[in-house]
Amino acid sequence: MALSETPLAQLPDTVQTAIDKLRGEMGGDGPLRMMVGLWVDQLESLLEDLRLGARHGDGGQLAAAAHRLKGTCALLGAHDLRARAAAIELAGLDGLPRTVEEDVDRFAVEARAFARLLESLR
């Protein structure tokens, strides 16, 4: 089934718009499916980097993982997730406030839910 035929009703309008734009820019469904698949496949590894960076006080590791997640969330139109990733990135750069582990946990729950929605696009 082509991505254009995939039911996207459960995705937020910003995500649908971003996917339509990416489909056009990338020249069709194949490259878009690959990008979505890479994000979904790498998500758990990046979330683990976030958790480890927060747990061990490694702001650089935390910021780097959050930065990667932030960029992809922005490309996919997941603006709330992008904003959460940006806040985590800043926490890593600014000295890790004590709530960063809670922020990482909340982000992980939301990112996994988003990944489940994106699975239909693979």
From TrEMBL:
Residues annotated as domain HPt: 28-122
Keyword terms, alphabetized: Phosphoprotein
UniProt record, GO biological process: phosphorelay signal transduction system
Listed Pfam families: Hpt
UniProt entry tagged with the keyword Hydrolase: no
Modification type Phosphohistidine: residues: 67
PROSITE patterns: HPT
Protein's recorded name: HPt domain-containing protein
UniProt source species: Paraconexibacter algicola
